[in-house]
Amino acid sequence: MDPLAQLKDIHLPAPVSAWPLSLYWWLVIIVIVLIIGLGIYAVLQYIKKTKLTRLALAELALLQQQGCEVNELHHLLKRIVLSSFPRETAASLHGDAWLKFLDQQASTNKHAFNAFSTNAAAWTLDLYSAKPNMLAELIHFKTCQDWIKKTSLMPVDYKMKSSIKNRSENTHV
Length: 173
Prior knowledge:
Elements: H1 23-49, H2 51-66, H3 70-84, H4 87-90, H5 95-106, H6 115-118, H7 120-124, H8 138-150, H9 156-172
């Protein structure tokens, strides 16, 4: 009898399974899910934060397309300011104080915005007349567009929520 004939075939071990995953793979999956979640949250916050700016620019474009008077641009700016700043701050402003307020809101440390104050006559000439009829020109629309883009516009309730949140964090520290 041949001793080699009595040998059995070589049995290979079972293939290595991908499951269960190792701890490192679970950590990678968790990190990826967190990054995706934070990215979605950041995009939603950005959309919420820029909503007022987008709406204001759309309304300005509509006014420009229809052709309007300078007073209508003042009304648009006042509505934007009242929805983005506390009523006590901006509701009573008019004339030069109003134009200075607009300039201050769009100014930064690096760049002073003074398009309203330097052209005060063009903005206030027709403002207090009995029959305002000065049509807005391209420079008026450009100034408003620049102001809307440079000013951080957020609804007052959004600002109030964040300031309340910041105050509560500061008191607990």
